[in-house]
Structure formats: C-alpha cells, structure tokens
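Q: My labmate handed me this sequence with no annotations at all. I'd like to see what the chain might look like in three dimensions before we decide whether it's worth expressing. Could you predict it?
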Amino acid sequence: MKIVVANQKGGAGKTTHCILFSNYLSLEKGKSILVIDMDFQSTIKSTWDEDRDLFDNESLYEVVDVDLANSTDVMNKLKDVDIPVVIDLPGKMDDDNLVPVIEQADLIITPFSYDKKTFRATHVFAQVVKHLNPKVPVVFLPNRLKAGVNYITKEQSNRELRVFGDIAPEISDRVAFQRVDTFSIPTDIKHQALKAYDFIYNNYMQVKYEEES
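A: Here is what I predict for the chain of 213 residues:
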C-alpha cells in the first residue's frame, strides 16, 4: 500500500506527520514499513540519519532518499513491494514528476490548517489530486491548530473538503512538534495523534491487512 503524505502548501505539517504516522504504523500497529523521502529538503532522511547516530535503538524503519525526477521508476518498482510505503512529497504542485506518485497512490493524507491561505491551497490541491487519481481516498488532517487564532469557519471548510475526502480528528499545536524524531510519538501529542491516526488506519488500512492475514 502506497501512502502519500502531501499538500502543495509548505508548512502545513506534511513532513512532521509523515514521520509520526510512520512511527505509529511501526510502534502501534507492528507494521514493517518503508519510508521514501521525495522532498527536495530531505528532512526525513536527515532526521533519520541523525537519530541513528543519537539513539542506541535499532531504527523502526528504513528511509530512502529519492530524487523526485526519478519518481516514475521508483513508483514502478514499488508495485512489487508488499509492505506499507509512506511517501513524503515536496510542498508544491508545479512539477510533472509528482504525477506518477499521485496517480499510483493508494491513500493520500493531506495535513492542513484552517487559516485562509492554507485552506485555499489545500482545496486546489484536492482538486488536482482527484483529477489525476479520481478513486484514491483522501484524508484531510487538521493540525497545528493554535488556541486564540481566528480561523475561517471550520464547518464551511470541512463541508468543501468533504467533496474530495474525509476529515480526520484535529490535532492542536504543541511544542513537541518542534522535536519530532523517528523513534517515538511525543507524550504530549500522543492522545490526539493516535485518535487521528486510528481514524485513518481503521477506515482506510485495516480492512486491507485483515484480508491479507
């Protein structure tokens, strides 16, 4: 199963939740997974390398750094991979190399927040995704929500996004998001994170793995 974590808006929480959801699949669900970092910043790969030097524990999963220009070849090779593959994409939409990844995705997780700029970018991204891959399930993940911030109407935003996919339980902002690693789910965000990730897993992944077991 190819799980793509993506949004064209940078700073929406994409890379953070790619790491945390990968940790969740490994720690909470006992899955052997592969993580592919296609973001040009290579944040996940560099974090994984640093964590391997810092911690004595064996890595939860392997992270492979892939140039987006090689996306077609990589996606073709992944057709023969039978474990969950979590893919982090760069925060943009102006690159044709994104197309094969989106076209072959089995699930797309799209972190976002309710500020106007991020919501509008997310809405456009959803339209492009459904044009390229009409059948792919899309789960929108509201996250990093700050107390006291005047967001646009959540009900209206959710109604518009539900045209394209589901809305996962929201995750509020925490300092722990600044120190995410590839070995754990920080305690102070764990309750909300597990609620959101369980929603994604139970609705879009569990049946597939029950059928295979």
